[in-house]
Structure prediction request, 277 residues.
Amino acid sequence: MNDESLIRAALAEWQQAFCRKDVDALMARYAPGAVLFDAIPPFVDDVAGMREKIVGCLPYFPDDTRIETRNLAVTVGAELASAHCLWHFTQLPPGHPAGRHWFRSSTVWQKQPDGRWLILHDHCSAPFNPYTERAVLFPDAQAALDAAPERCGSGANPVGWFEIYVADMDRAKAFYTAVFGFEFTRLESPIDLWAFPMQSTNAGASGALAKMEGFGPGGGGNSVLVYFSCADCSEQADLAGWNGGEVVKPKFAIGAYGHIAIVKDSEGNLIGLHSMA
Prediction:
């Protein structure tokens, strides 16, 4: 076997070792001083830390787990080589958190005196959208977005603003500050209007708490459900319940799109909470 074939075989053995939960065979593919940038924190890990992480993860994978690889490319030099590919786990139960993600992997290999190639650097990650701070889970996600027809004008965001009508403005501001840490800004308007934080150069929509006679809780006005982005929506759901609100539907999975929870705020409005975790 030439050097490229040896590296491809070693990568295949790494994957097979993970799937059969053979930690020793998996870790044997790493050089003793290897540095790892894994998709799971911490940002930087060593071989011992990676081993501990894998030992903790393996019990959550069924015995028939498999790994699918795309676009594997290997470049070989005299002493160092590089390999990169896309991959993901398959044959996982529906809703399994590891089954939603594709990863991009880059490895640097070092040739050993005995002719073996070992991983000197391992970088595994998923790209993210800087406007939403969410990971892009599928290799074809951006292509699908680019191919989607424009609606509601020239590619504008479907939602440009929201208003949540309240009965008691001070109580409502206190609720959203306690749950999300928001600071509000009074807007010049004929109605009592307090804006959520907004960044005019960023994507997404902002909005405001509004108080106007005839609208809002008990006034017969329209009720609009909006979703707030969270790191873990269960935390904000708990905070809602502790700060004068009510948890209507606790955190639950919505497949590849993460998790949501639905709560009532201090004014009786329904609001949604969304997180990928």
